[in-house]
Structures are given as C-alpha cells and as structure tokens.
Design brief:
Mean pLDDT: 76
Number of helices: 22
Helix content: 40-55%
Strand content: 5-15%
Low-confidence stretches: 13-49, 58-63, 108-124
Oligomer: single chain
Length: 552
Amino acid sequence: RVPCLDLGRLGDSDEEDGDSYIPYSGSYPHTCPLDSSSDWRMSLQTPYAQHHQAQQHSVLEQKTIPENLPSPTDRYKLKYRQYEADMKEEYKQYSQRIAEKKKDLLQCPEASIKGTQLEDGHNDDLTALDEKALLQQCYTSKPYNMQHSIRKSEAEDVAAERRKQAVVEQVMVDQLSRAVISDPEQSMRADVYKEAHGLLGLGTAPMRFRRRTLHETKIRTKSGLTENMLSNKLRFDSRIISRNGRDACRELIGFFFACDRSLTVYEFRQFGKNRTNALPFIQKGVYQHQRGQKKGKAYDLSDFYIGADLTFRSVDHNLPDSVKQSSVLTLRVISIDEAAMDFLKASSMEFKQEHCKQVVDDRKVFKKIQGILRETLSKRGVRVITGLGKYFRHIDKNKNGFLSQADFKEALKVFHLEIPEGDFESLWLILDDSKSDKVDYGEFTRAVFGEMNEYRKALVRKAYMKLDFNKTGSVRMVDITKCYCAKKHPLVLAGKATEEEIKSSFLETLGESCSNPNEVSYSEFEDYYEGLSIGIMDDDDFVNILRNPWGI
C-alpha cells in the first residue's frame, strides 16, 4: 500500500514565520480513499491554499483578533534583533553616502558660480549659457574608475605601439628597395654615356627606370642606403593643423634620418576591421621651413620637439584635395621617441638647441596677451571661444580662413575683449609674416587665447573619432544625442538633476557654437572643449570631462 502525500507537513513552522494554518485533517489514514471526490480534491491543494482558505473563514466567521495568541519564541526574537541591527547599519551607510554626495555637490563649480553671483551682487559677466556650459566641469569632482582606466589605457598603448612598429617596418622596406632600384649605378655604361651626352632616343629611359631582369640589377651599390644608415632615425607622431575633421584626425608618423637630414611622413590607415596599411604622405627628402623665423632653412634635429610646427609647400606633394586648399601644409609634432632623440643628441656633434632672440620675444608677446584675457575667459571661455569661431566663419566670405586686421579688431570689440593697442600691433607683426594684411583666424585664436596641450587635444580627437566613425569630417547632432551619457554626472548621482537636464544643457551650449544646428564639425567640437579647458588646470580632471560622458 502506498501512503498518501501529506502536503501539510511541507509548510514552515510557527517558530520561523509566525504563520499558522489548520491542517485539513488531524488523522492521516494509510490508504487514500478514491471514492471520496471532495477529500481527493482537498488533498491536492497546497499548504498556502489551505492556509488562505482558513484565513478567509477566520475573517468571515471571526472579525476580531484572538487574545490567546502564543508568545514569540526565543528563536523568533533573535531573528528580529538581527534584522533590526541590519536595518540600522544600512540606514547609517545610506546617511553617509548622502553626506558625501552633498559634500561633492558643494565643491562643484556650478554651485560655487551661483554663490559668487549672490555674494558679488552682479551677474552681468555670466549668462545662462555660461552656467550650462560650466556644468560639464562638474565631472571633475567624480573621478573616473582608476582600475578600468589603467586597463583601457594599457590596451590602447599596446595597439598604438603595434601600429607604429608596422609603419617602421614598411618605411624600412620602402626606402631600402627604392634606394637600390633607382640608384644611378643600375644603369649600364652605354646608357650612362648616352644620358650624359643626350644621345638617348626619344621615349628611351635609363636602365634604372626600365624594367629589367635580376642579372641586370646590382644588389649592392656604392651610394645606396643601408639598413644601418637608416637605423639612425628619429620617429615622431604628428597631426595636421586643420579645421577639417577628416584631415585633423589623420594618424601621421614621421621619421627624420640623421644620415642625410631627410625626413618622410607616413599615414597609418585602416581599411575595414582587419586590413591596415602604411602609405607615404610626404616622400623622403630634404625640406626647408616655409614660415617663421627659420624660413628657407633646412630642417635639423633641433627642430623636432613636442609642439613644433613643420611646414611644407602643398603643391610639392601628392596630397588630398582638402589639404591642398591651403598653400602651406602645417604639421604639429605631438610626440617623439625620447630614447632615439637622446641617442642622436649624444652622437651628433653639431646639435645645438638654441632659440632665436626674436622667437623668445614673440613668445613673450603671446604670453602677455594670454595673461590679460585669461581672467576674463576663466568662466565664460566656452561662450567666447565658440562664439568667436562662429563669428569668424560667418564673415569669412572667401572660405579660405584668412581675415584682415580690421576684422579681428571688430571681433574683439563685439565680444568685449580688450587688448592694448601696442600689444595688438606687436601681435599682428608676428602673425603677418608675409605682409599680406591677412592672417589665418585659427592661428590668431591660438596666439591670443593659447591652446590645449597635445595630451588634451589627443583626447578630444579620440572622442570625435568615436562619434565620426565614417570619417566624414562632421557629426550629426542626432548621433551626439544618442552617444552622450550623463549617468556619472555628480548632480545626477546626488539626485539634484536628471540625465535629460544635463544632456539638454550640453546640447544647447554645443548647438549655440555651430553654424548648422543639425551637425557639428571638428573645429566646433574642438572649440567647445578648448573653452572648457581654460578653467581646468589638472589633466586628470580634463580626462574625466571626456571619459565620463563619451566612454573613451
């Protein structure tokens, strides 16, 4: 005989949860009677259903709580005390978290700005647009996850080093093969004689330019470059100074060869997900400065340092059409191989790191003007720099980036920026080195306000490249709205603002700086963070401003 299943014994005891229920039957027979339909249906009910039914009957029949309830057991009292202690500890931790958030909120620039306005009694200098722009600086009060940041940075450094190594190998292959194949010694004696006396037939090229078999080619030539000669080189990373986003984000790696003082620049390009290639951007050769105090002088080792500008004539190179729009191509050195530089300095007897007196005087003029305007721009830098960029693009009718002296004076007057007349004249003499009464307004802005260091500019380019994944040079405002994340903003974490409020304030201030409200160009994106950078001294704080909302 199979005993009946007693579902009543599966319920919790009275000591554990305090609930009580009345079993269906006090006695349990050894056999399960099949002829009793009502007993069979009740035996299939769960303890919860039986207990629920018992409670319903109790409520219907007795609408009062019985007085003869059993007192709680010691086990139940112990559990209750543990529960009470846990709740008190959780409330204490919650109170501490709220106090820390309030403390961070008080340190937020946005709160200090409003307090300053109330104390000073005037708010003419700051507008609502400035306050919304400065909300982005609040990210500095909430540091980025350090462990995650270190892992991500290390992975990026490894990938960048692999790319540079691939470019180095490609450069060595190109230069060694080209040097041997195109060497004049590859020509036959008869061709050399005919070439020297002009006897080569029309349409006949010397042997070194013709297709030839292996036995007609010399493997080693007297004047050919060797791997040992090319190994004495300085590697440097550079970028194009351009308002075009596609050109400004090109990844350029250059090499200066100490053996013949020549240089070459390669571009690392990625085609799809897995295919990469290093292509020559500027062919190997000896080049001269095209602008500045060293105009006409050949480049030497002392011209390569972080922040140095390398200038080339655009017509002399096979460059993209967007780059050729300017007659002079300017490359900014953003990093160099320090170990190679130290080795070349030690082995070079002619190296002299000296600065022309005129260059030093020019820098003093720039520093003086930047010092005059820095206090003015400390809180409204975003509005001034983005507004000036928008104003310059509007009055630039020829769309070549050059404006006259009168245009710049009028722009400073519109934005209430006062520069002494003598300092402005000195500035203009420095910038207008060609005496054309025209100066590039990007160069003027960098001289007057200064600019971010290369570390910060690299972060800005990285954020923009993440948005402009198609490399079109402009980003739709819709894509920026989708990518911007305000979850880690201190005001959101403290419950003082919503994510939508922070996002809308960012989009409003960024949209004000754009000529087209539906898309953002690279120069407009860079100007926005250039203005934010003025009030931030620490690079780590600037990292938080870009990494928290963009996730780079």
